[in-house]
Design brief:
- The protein has 271 residues and is α/β, with parallel strands linked by helices.
- The protein folds into 2 domains: 48 residues, no CATH class; 222 residues, Rossmann fold (3-Layer(aba) Sandwich).
- The chain is built from 11 helices and 9 strands.
- A 4-stranded parallel beta sheet has the order 3-8-7-4.
- Helix 6 crosses helix 8.
- The longest helix is centred in the first third of the chain and has 18 residues.
- The chain binds zinc ion (2 copies).
- One zinc ion (ZN) binds next to helix 4.
Length: 271
């Protein structure tokens, strides 16, 4: 009897596979991918994605718009006003954005794959708030390509942590998912325990840069044994003002880290 059952089950599974073969779709526009690829992206999105390109802040990786380009201002979503700064003359000659020229930055350098707008912005939003965890390996593949385009020697990888209360509410940390996948791709050591968030800070969206820095002061803790004498690569989904990355870098350096580099999927300037 069980043989008949097994045969029927196999037949049914084979029929299902015929009727509904695996379907792969673009992570950005949901168009069907006829040839699946490691970044899960269709050719038309690949051509239109807002990659950071060649003009960016040498410190924090913020993209500069080409000269004469219109600033996509008044881009209000989720209560945030987002824009990319048009590069002024000083940016072009110095290579640093206004924030990095005027504020102390504790990280050595940050690079980002995309400008935080359009399709990548929507994907990150879904990864962060929409439980779309399946996006992490594809976005990590983009991070990996960026890392390999200009590799730096690092001893370990950490993710920007969530406070445990926030973690409980959300159920996962998107930066952790990205860091875990990226480390596996690059055969780097991932140490989630090296960095933790010890104070639950208020959300930063409505705060000015100065208030953000004060809000974050002393909010993280690093494990000296893990990071002492090490070069650390910090992973996050988005760099906004860079206040979080700078505070994380300060915490890691106080615990003895020698260099702190950052890698984020996207990078935004906020007005
Ligand atoms: Zn697409
Ligand atoms: Zn900068």
């Amino acid at each position: 009897m069980s043989n008949v059952k097994d045969t029927l089950k196999r037949f049914w599974q084979a029929t299902l596979a015929e009727l509904a073969p695996d379907r792969y779709s673009c992570i950005f526009c949901d168009a069907e991918l006829y040839s699946p690829n490691r970044v899960g992206t269709c050719p038309s999105c690949t051509a239109a994605l807002p990659f950071v390109g060649d003009a960016y802040c040498l410190k924090c990786g913020k993209p500069f718009l080409p000269e004469g380009a219109e600033r996509p201002l008044s881009h209000v979503e989720d209560g945030e006003v987002l824009f990319l700064p048009a590069a002024d003359d000083e940016q072009r000659t110095s290579g640093y954005c206004a924030i990095c020229r005027h504020r102390e930055r504790h990280f050595d350098r940050v690079r980002s794959v995309f400008a935080y707008q359009g399709a990548p912005r929507r994907a990150i939003y879904r990864l962060k708030y929409g439980n779309a965890r399946y996006l992490a390996p594809y976005l990590a593949a983009y991070l990996s390509d960026l890392y390999l385009s200009d590799p730096i020697a690092v001893d370990l990888v950490v993710a920007v942590p969530l406070h445990r209360d926030r973690y409980r509410t959300r159920g996962y940390n998107q930066a952790h998912l990205l860091a875990q996948d990226l480390s596996a791709r690059l055969l780097l050591e991932y140490k989630p325990e090296a960095l933790s968030k010890t104070r639950n800070t208020q959300t930063q969206t409505s705060l000015s840069l100065k208030d953000r820095q004060e809000n974050l002061h002393g909010a993280f803790a690093a494990d000296k044994e893990c990071v002492h004498g090490k070069s650390v690569l910090v992973i996050d989904d988005v760099l906004t003002t860079g206040a979080t990355m700078s505070e994380v870098a300060l915490t890691l350096k106080k615990a003895g880290a020698v260099h702190v580099y950052g890698l984020t999927v996207a990078n935004v300037a906020e007005h």
